[in-house]
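Case 434 in the screening queue. Each case pairs one protein sequence with one candidate compound; here the compound is uracil. For every case the pipeline is the same: read the inputs, emit a complex structure as tokens, and attach any notable structural observations.

Predict complex for case 434.
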Amino acid sequence: MTFDDLLRKKRYGGELQKEEIDFFIDRLTADALPDYKVSAFLMAVCLQGMTDRETADLTEAMANSGNTLDLSLFGDQTVDKHSTGGVGDKTTLIVAPIAACAGCKIAKMSGRGLGDTGGTIDKLEAIPGFSVEPAKDEFLRQVEDVGIAVVSQSGELAPADKKLYALRDVTCTVDSIPLIASSIMSKKLAAGARHIVLDVKCGSGAFMKTLPEALELAQTMIEIGSRKGRVVCALVSDMQTPLGSCVGNALEVMEAADVLKGNTTGGALYDVALTLAGLMIASVKQLPYAQGRAKAEQILKSGAAYDKFLAWLQAQGADALVCSHLEALPLSSRCFTLTAGQGGYLAGIRADLAGHLAKQLGAGRENKGDSIDYGAGIRFLASIGEQIAPGHPLAALYTEKPIGDEKLRGLAEDLFIFSEKRPETTSPILQILQ
Ligand code: URA
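Case 434 output:
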């Protein structure tokens, strides 16, 4: 077998056998294939697609290309949650403590921000002292004792995906359902949890712009998981608007802490977080979703989830004094208040532009390896549906960058969508697939 044989087969729409896929990933991991051949293969997959069986075999081969985590000592109580990437999505910080209070074990590997979307690891690093790289035995002990540990995804996890992702990024081959599904699920399989809850984002701030695409991605990932012995379910949620009222690392930690303290009992962030926590509990404890959700709400209300959150942060090194004043994490020294130039109802906030703006304020990276300003970001001061008069404050922008007021105003142009009529309220929960 040669790589050119499989390249030709895929180009003409053939179905690759497991041995052929294993051969490809083996050669790729050994750095034995030139980028131009791999790029041609990726383009052939984009154009010809893959069957569910091929996608599942590709996922498994990628998962086995590096280290895998054995979580069998926790029985079948392990659950992972994955979001396909969004703006203002701090749900991991909320759902992990709730699910841990219900007895689930969360041994999670998370990523940093990607493009204009944030990453859980960057948010956690906004908490002084928090370590995202504990040793493996400490990580497992913490899962046993506290129920949660979240660490930075190491380069040794699914290295074949890392190589493919870097090439996809520069060859217009990112948005292919078999390639996205295998990329995400390879890391989930390697990370070892028995139960996987997916949050597939849909809208302007997400990879999947339409509901049919998001549903197809969700169904493909569920199919991969069940072919490979995992229990997978998915939420498809709205990412037309940023999730919650803050975008930026320290700001998002403070917002998550506020939800955990029970200060918010409605809105999109609360709804998405409680749905995900409900699905995690339902999956692990083998309950109908409604019972999992009710349990999640009861745990949140009791205050136990906030206590668990603090225990988790401190187990990973966060300063105890900081934890007792989480609402006062340091923010960037400059705060600019953006006001409405026109009146009307606030009908929307564009998630893609919000992600881009937060990055320009310093909350994300322009280039791989750049340092970020944990205190930078956006706090929205008006909610969707609210009637706004000209001059009403819309958002506070935090930055350390020397960006003039006019430039800041220009960067935020088109972020807010106004309408003359009161917009209808919509739910961020688009579909649940179990
Ligand atoms: N996230 C991933 O890990 N991979 C993709 O291809 C897209 C989003």
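Case 434 observations:
- The pocket of uracil is lined by residues 84-85, 165, 180, 183-184, 207 (CB under 6 Å).
- The chain has 17 helices and 13 strands.
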